[in-house]
C-alpha cells in the first residue's frame, strides 16, 4: 500500500572548508589572522577566510591542507578541525567545516595566486567578512584562547629560543592584559618543569640580560593527556 504521507525532501548542499589561520606579531604585540579578497560573486571584493569547496574523492582534511598550501608556505603548522557551520547563499545550502591553524609569522610566505588580495589583518581591525564568516573567526579566537590555557600551542609560534618575557607577552597579546601578572605566570611555568634553561642570555632593550629558554617536548610528555592549566 502506498505511503499516505509524503516524505520530506532531503536537503541538497555543497561542502566546503574554511581555515582560520592565526599568527602573532611578536614585535608589535598583535594577534593576526590571514584573509583573502574575493574576485568573483557572490561577495566580490569582500575579504574572507581562505576556503574552498571539497572536491570529489577528497577528504575534508585534505581540502583544508590544499587551500593552506595554495595560500601560504610555512614550515611549522598546527591545524585542527574547529566547527561545522551551515548557511544558505543565493538559494544554495552550504555546509562549511572550519579548521583552525597557527603559524609563525616570520616564517610564513603568502601566495597571491588566484586571488586579488591576501594579507594578515590584526584581529581588532578585521572588516565584515563574506558569508558571515566573522562568527567562524570569533569561534576560532575562543578556541585559540582555550588552547593557550591548557596546551603548549604557544611554542608553535615562538622562536626555538625565547625569554620568559616574550612568552608572557604572547599570552597577553592573545588573552588580554588581565589574565595573569608576570610574577605568577613565571613561577607557575617554571614549576611545571618543561622549560629548559639554556644558560644563554640576551640583551633586548635597556633592562638586564634575560635568560633564553627552550620548550622541552620530552619533559612535557607526561602532561600530554592530563588536564593542565598553564595560566
Task: Characterize the structure shown.
This protein is of the alpha+beta class. The protein has five helices and eleven strands. Strands 1, 2, 3, 4, 6, 7 and 9 form a seven-stranded mixed beta sheet that branches. Strands 5-8 form a two-stranded antiparallel sheet. Strands 10-11 form a two-stranded antiparallel sheet.
In quaternary terms, these chains amount to: single chain
Measured between the Cα atoms of the first and last residue, the distance is 66 Å
Approximate shape: elongated
Taking pLDDT < 50 over at least 5 consecutive residues as the criterion, the unreliable ranges are: none
- Topology pattern, helix = H, strand = E: EEEEHEEEEEHHHEEH
- Please provide the count of β strands: 11
Strand content: 25-35%
> Rg from C-alpha positions?
21 Å
Q: Which secondary-structure class do the elements indicate? A: alpha+beta
Q: What's the mean pLDDT score?
A: 87
The number of helical runs is 5
Task: Please give the share of residues in helix.
Answer: 10-25%
Main β sheet profile: 7 strands, mixed
Offer a quick outline of the entry.
By secondary structure, the chain is α+β, with helices and mostly antiparallel strands. Helices cover 24% and strands 32% of the residues. The strands form three sheets. Strands 1, 2, 3, 4, 6, 7 and 9 form a seven-stranded mixed beta sheet that branches. Strands 5-8 form a two-stranded antiparallel sheet. Strands 10-11 form a two-stranded antiparallel sheet.
Amino acid at each position: 500500500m502506498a505511503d499516505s504521507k509524503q516524505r520530506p525532501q532531503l536537503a541538497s548542499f555543497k561542502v566546503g572548508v574554511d581555515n582560520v589561520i592565526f599568527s602573532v606579531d611578536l614585535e608589535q604585540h598583535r594577534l593576526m589572522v590571514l584573509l583573502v579578497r574575493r574576485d568573483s560573486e557572490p561577495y566580490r571584493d569582500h575579504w574572507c577566510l581562505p576556503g574552498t569547496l571539497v572536491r570529489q574523492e577528497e577528504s575534508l582534511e585534505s581540502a583544508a591542507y590544499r587551500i593552506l598550501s595554495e595560500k601560504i608556505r610555512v614550515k611549522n603548522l598546527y591545524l585542527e578541525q574547529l566547527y561545522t557551520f551551515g548557511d544558505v547563499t543565493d538559494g544554495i545550502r552550504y555546509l562549511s567545516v572550519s579548521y583552525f591553524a597557527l603559524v609563525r609569522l616570520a616564517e610564513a610566505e603568502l601566495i597571491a595566486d588566484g586571488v586579488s588580495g591576501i594579507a594578515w589583518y590584526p584581529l581588532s581591525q578585521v572588516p565584515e567578512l563574506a558569508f558571515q564568516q566573522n562568527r567562524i573567526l570569533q569561534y576560532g579566537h575562543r578556541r585559540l584562547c582555550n588552547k593557550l590555557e591548557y596546551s603548549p600551542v604557544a611554542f608553535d609560534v615562538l622562536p626555538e629560543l625565547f625569554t620568559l618575557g616574550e612568552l608572557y607577552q604572547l599570552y597577553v597579546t592573545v588573552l588580554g592584559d588581565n589574565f595573569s601578572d608576570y610574577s605568577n605566570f613565571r613561577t607557575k611555568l617554571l614549576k611545571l618543569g618543561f622549560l629548559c634553561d639554556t644558560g644563554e642570555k640576551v640583551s633586548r632593550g635597556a633592562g638586564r640580560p634575560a635568560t633564553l629558554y627552550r620548550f622541552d617536548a620530552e619533559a612535557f610528555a607526561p602532561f600530554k593527556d592530563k588536564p593542565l592549566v598553564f595560566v
